[in-house]
Structures are given as structure tokens and as C-alpha cells.
Amino acid sequence: MPSAEHTILRELLAAGTEWVSGTTLAAKLGVSRVAVWQHMEKLRAAGFTFEAQRAHGYRIAARPATLFGPLIELEQRLRPRGFTLIVLDSVDSTNDEAARQLAAGRATPFAVLARKQTRGRGRFGRTWHSDSSANLYASFAFHPRVEPERMQTFTLWMGVNVCALLEKFTGLAPGIKWPNDLLYDGRKAGGMLTEARIDADRIRDLVFGLGLNVNSPATAWPADLAKRAVSLAEVTGAPLDLNRLAAALVGRVLLAFQTFADGEHLKTFADLWHRHDVLRGKTISLLEGGRRHTGTVTGLDDEGALLLRDARGKAHRFRAGEVTLEKAAS
Amino acid sequence: MKRSELTEFAVEEEGFKLKIRRGANGLPIVSTARGSAAPFPTGDSVPPMPIPAPATPLANPAAAALKDEAGFAYIKSPMVGTFYRAGSPESKPFADVGAKVSENTVVCIIEAMKIMNEIQAEAKGTVVEALVENGQPVEYGQRLFKIKQG
Fold first, then answer.
1. At the N or C end, where does chain A have fewer CB atoms within 10 A?
2. How are beta strands A57-62 and A49-53 bridged, if at all?
């Protein structure tokens, strides 16, 4: 049964700019008008402000600037059966929480979103700066019925889907830097970390994690990140509705996962990759297993490996590595 | 090319030249030339040649030869990727030599396309040998650890 806050929100959202009377809300909930008022106090605490007019009732004046679960659920158009959304105030890492929930037997798919992460991380335990509730930290858990080898392009596919969503949402196309950075103007707006647990020949479970810098101001970055990080609000010049973005993201990720699981992603992957790829034709250096390689990126192969041509024209292929864009010669 | 009467074939695209002609012995000779002004092509003219993955010799070749050594099991890589013995450079290895493992013990991470894959032991016993070094590429089915069962 939906909570009273959920029901009140649904009515107010459906009404838009129209007024909803306290009597109507009380009747829907089967409670007194005083009780309605008390539930609305909880919504105020979550960041809503309401206009109230005597004879008319209530309407929403402002939405919360931080994540609010019932609002995300109401904004989410695609609601697959059995999907669970978990929104936490603070967590060590949404990927770790998703792994714990999986270990405890929670059914998939589910998503863990948090207003803050105390130990947000990327590869090899590197820190992902996560102390601003203006940003988005989300992890999605699945049980993919897919052979491990077929997962080679999973993170790339999810990445271009997030790019496509951000383009739709902001009007500006982000770039993807192989394999898992989302960029605007060469600065990092998001990063992905996919973790899986594998038994001999099958994937037991999989967690796709995403950190997105949404509304944090330029002044919020530590000095060492200021030149390398950017938020969507900095790019577009205006704050974004975090809950609407979260709802759109949840829908897109669930859909993208299903498309991948069905093997239908190959129809659009190459086009999407071309649209957002920032490395093709660029001179980069790539660090792999302690060795540095320099060359020009020529594209991807079928397994999502990066193809590089060195200064002598020799082709190389990398399944993994850290890519640094070389400064253009002046 | 041998099937055709073609003796020479050239492609030029964005300042990049690819020329193939039949050599004296009938085998094709491929030559490429770069235009000076144009940027290096994004490259569909020459199919990329995959570089062979660096061979990762087993620490004990004798162990590899023994197929079903009684009382021992091998943890094998379920995928192509990069092998890591710990979750971060500062962390302790998941499974040191001498460590007791059971079916669900995480023994290493294999990274493939930024998926960090936790690999479980699938066997109960004691790690007697780690067969791959940290940070090395591994192939599908490659032996990662030797386990003394029991």
C-alpha cells in the first residue's frame, strides 16, 4: 500500500498548477484534515514547499533539491514488475550497499540511490568525490542470464545510454571517454563502475554503479579536481531537477539492461558510440599493466577493445587501460 | 588477389595511401604512406592487427601438464581480462598462498571492460600456488590458482 505521503504527492503532481483541497486529500486517505496537514509537514521536511489558500487548498510551489524516493517513483514512467527503489540518506558506497542487499537475498532488479557516499569509489578503490547531496550516486543490481564473455561491451553500452539520456535531458551531448568516463568539454561529469560476481561459467549477479555531478557548484570541488570535474548545472547554466533526472535515469538504465540481455543492443551501439566517442582520431597515451603506449585511436573492435595506431603505423588493441588525452601540439 | 588478375591495388583516403601489389613470388606486398598535411586517418584502410596477448607463463609448468592431479583443483578464469589479486593496490591479496578457501571465497578480481569481476574459488581447500602475477592479462580457461582440496 502506498504511503500517505505518496498518495498526497500523487494527487498534487497530477493537479499540476491546480489546487487540491484538504478535504479531497483527507477523503482519499480516509483520514482527518489535521492528519493530512501532518503528512504534508513530512513532505516539507523532505524539501517541498506548498502554497495554501483558504477556499482552494494546496499546490506544489517548489520541489526538493535532493533525492526523494516517493517523488522519483511517481516521476518514473517505466516501472517493471518487481523493481525496488531504495533511497538512502548516506551510505559508504551504493555499489557496496547493492552487493550487501544481493547477499541478503533481495530480488533483482533494484536500485540503490544515496544523497551522499562516504566511500564513493572508482576502480581500484580510488575515491569518487561524493559528499554533495546535489549530485547523483546510483547503483543498479541485476541477475544477467548472459555468458560472462558477452559482458565485454556492457559498461560501454550502459555508458552511451547514459550519454543519450543526458543529451535529451540537458540539450547538450556529453562525450564518453573509453571505457567509463562521461565528459563535457574534457571535464569529468560522471563515471561508471560495474562489478560482478562470477561462478565458473555464469554471472551470479552484477552491479552497475554511476556517479553523476549534477548540481554541485564550481566552488564545491577540491582544488585538485576543479579543472578536471564539471557538473551538469555548470554546463547548462541552470540547476537541474535532480529527482526528475533520477527517475529518467532509472528508466533508461532498466531499459538498456533489458536490451543488452536480449542481445538487441548491437543494432544501435555503433551509432551511439560514434555520436559520443571523444577519443577517435585523437592522440592518447594508455597505461596498461605498468606499460605506457602512445598512439592515435582508430576505433573499437567487436569486443569493445580500444584500437590504437602507434607513430610507426603499427596497430595495437587494448582490452583495459587508463587513457590520457595528449595535449594538442601548439 | 591471387584469384584475380589484379596485380596492383591502391586506396587513397584523406591523405592516407594503401597500396597492394602482387610481388614476384605471387604474394601481396602491402605498403602504406602517410599524407603530410592531413591528419592521421581514423583508419578503416588497413585492418588492425591484433597484438598477441603477452604470454603469461605458469609459475610451475609441470602443474599445467598434469591434468587431473589427484587431490588438487585449479581455479580457472571464466573470461578474458586483467587479473588482480587485491581490491586496490594498498589492500592485501584476497587469497595468499596458504589461505584456506571454500566455494564462495573471493580469490581474485578479473577486469574486463571495466567490469570488475569477483571470482570465487569453486573449490574447498588451501591455496598452494598463485599461477598468475598481479596486473597480468589472462585468457579464458587459464589456470589462476592451484588448490589442495580438502
1. C
2. antiparallel
With an 8 Å Cβ cutoff, is A302 touching chain B?
no
**ipTM value for the complex:** 0.76
Fold of B71-149: OB fold (Dihydrolipoamide Acetyltransferase, E2P) (2.40.50)
Cα distances (angstroms) measured from residue B125 to each of A197, B76, B98, B119: 20, 15, 9, 16
Which residue type sits at A66? T
Nearest-angstrom CA–CA distance, A110 and B130:
36
Find the residue in A nearest to B138 (Cα): A319
Tell me the whole-structure pTM to 2 decimals. 0.81
Q: pLDDT tens string for chain B (150 positions)?
A: 445 444 454 444 434 444 454 544 444 454 444 433 433 333 334 444 444 444 444 444 444 444 557 899 999 998 888 999 998 888 899 999 999 999 989 999 999 877 899 999 989 999 999 999 998 889 989 999 999 998
CB within 8 Å: B111 and A153:
no
- Domain residues of chain B, as ranges? 1-45, 71-149
Q: Measured between beta carbons, which residues in chain B are less than 8 angstroms from residue A299?
A: 42-44
Spatial contact of B63 and B131, defined as CB atoms under 8 Å apart? yes
